[in-house]
Amino acid sequence: MIPEATLGNYVFKLPDVGEGVAEAEIVAWHVDVGDVVKEDQPLVDVMTDKATVEITSPVTGKVLSRNGATGDKAAVGNELVVIATEAKDEPSLPTPAAPAVAPPASAPELSKEGAAQAPAGQRPTAAPAVRARAHALDIDLAQVAGTGPEGRILHEDLDRFLLRSRGGEPHQIPAARDGSEEIRVIGLRRQIAETMQAAKRRIPHFTYVEEVDVTALEALRKDLNEGQGHPRLTLLPFLIRGIVKILPDHPGINAHFDDEAGIIRRFSAVHVGIATQTRRGLLVPVIRHAESLELFDLANQILRISESARAGKASREELTGSTITVTSLGPLGGIAATPIIKPPEVAIMGVNRIAERPVVREGRIVVRKMMNLSSSFDHRIVDGFDAASFIQALKGVLEAPARLLVA
Hints:
By secondary structure, the chain is of the alpha+beta class. The chain folds into 3 domains: 4-86, CATH 2.40.50.100; 115-166, Dihydrolipoamide Transferase; 188-405, Chloramphenicol Acetyltransferase (2-Layer Sandwich), CATH 3.30.559.10. It has helices at residues 128-136, 155-166, 187-202, 215-225, 235-246, 295-310, 384-399, and strands spanning 7-13, 23-29, 36-37, 42-47, 52-56, 61-66, 73-75, 79-86, 109-110, 116-117, 205-213, 255-258, 263-266, 272-274, 276-278, 281-283, 286-287, 324-328, 347-361, 364-378. It has a 6-stranded mixed sheet with strand order 11-20-19-18-14-17. The chain has a 4-stranded antiparallel sheet with strand order 1-8-6-3, with no helix packed on it. A hairpin with a 4-residue loop joins strand 4 (42-47) and strand 5. Helix 5 (235-246) packs across helix 6 and helix 5 (235-246) packs across helix 7. The longest helix is centred in the middle third of the chain and has 16 residues, at 187-202.
């Protein structure tokens, strides 16, 4: 233990975690009050509107207090942690060994399946509803292995006991379920919620859905994927290549709208955001200068930034700066969707599932591979005619995919 007389208090404040960032949300604490920490040991993770940042301790010492709970927002310069440090003539703090944890004196025994049975002479633990059901079924709870906390017997345990002791499937009416779970919306999930709410509140969405015959494109994709030494092509590189090819004729689609300043910014460069599902929620890493990339270059970039986002390693630069976004649910894409625009962009392209469908071609019914494009536009900036013209042009290059392979 560190003598209080030798201690000095180091007040650690939230540092500047990014240009233009005034506050950050606390998303995870790595220390508790009373913990002994070393210099450069992680203290807390904070999230800005650009990225999640891990903040480490600048000193070695004992945590006396910490300011803010998970989900709270802290301003840059606010006190985060107070750490008791040793005087300069004192040696560095040793890291205390973790105390051995003794098992409970009355720990229940485990059955072969990992379920706990109450020790002999001890009344089994079960909810009143479980006891009532066991009584109605003439089941001795002492013979039932519980899989709940500390060997608590659950309804599922009764079902399992019935299957083993009586054979066959028990024909019992399922027990009624009660209770609820409260989950605080924090971190990335709160950021997504706030962004989506602002987008729907401020942007009048115009959604346009068109079907595309991708039979020829899928045949070309299959042929290209049979080659060696390059990443497997999904539909997305073709879609991005198609968008890049037609955008010069539709400059109002590749733009930002600053509604507060009343300014539209049209871009020559095409920085494509790829909506990517991760364990923490939806992230949108960015492929920069997609106009300069060929199909396999695009495939490489999509793979790289998607893996980086899913691993939580995407940098701030990789998660900002998109001028247009594409989104795809792959096999879960459904028939149609209403994708939400990512402000300040004015358009988002959505890919739906590819399915074989009967269609009429030259008076004959044939089976073709069809896919819907579900795209949304900011109706303040993009008129319906312009949105439809853009999608029809995109449909044209996707249905004649050889055009995607030439400059």
